[in-house]
Write a structure and sequence with these properties.
Layout lengths: L1 E8 L4 E3 L3 E8 L2 E8 L2 E4 L1 E2 L6 E7 L5 E7 L6 E9 L19 E5 L2
Parallel strand pairs: 2-9
Antiparallel strand pairs: 1-3, 1-10, 3-7, 4-5, 4-8, 6-7, 8-9
């Protein structure tokens, strides 16, 4: 099954450790959209005027960051977008940097 989506923000593939980011993501047919930072699930809220648009502000305080979605037909949430987190000098001792930055401007999502 394919899910078309639009990522409004953040569009850059690299996020700064310690920053607050506004996430805005449009995808049809989802009952839940979360930004996962490390092991913390941060639910996005869907807009009343457009329930396919999900958004919210999230603190970037871990190295693993991604957008996960769940529809009624999915058993578990599936990852749709991953980001790299750029670590400042003070954080480098505790964390390592992720793999190369993904292109996250326009996505076609495939659930297997």
């Amino acid at each position: 099954q394919k899910f078309g989506c639009i990522l409004y923000s953040p569009k850059q593939g690299i996020l700064e450790f310690g920053s607050s980011q506004h996430f805005k993501f449009e995808v049809q047919g989802m009952e839940k959209v979360d930004v996962i930072v490390g092991k913390n699930w941060n639910p996005l809220k869907n807009q009343i005027e457009n329930p396919n648009v999900w958004e919210g502000d999230v603190e970037i305080d871990e190295k693993d960051v991604g957008i996960y979605c769940k529809s009624s037909g999915m058993g578990n949430s599936s990852g749709f977008v991953e980001y790299i987190v750029r670590m400042g000098e003070e954080a480098k001792g505790n964390h390592t940097q992720l793999k190369k930055a993904p292109e996250v401007l326009n996505l076609t999502l495939i659930h297997i």
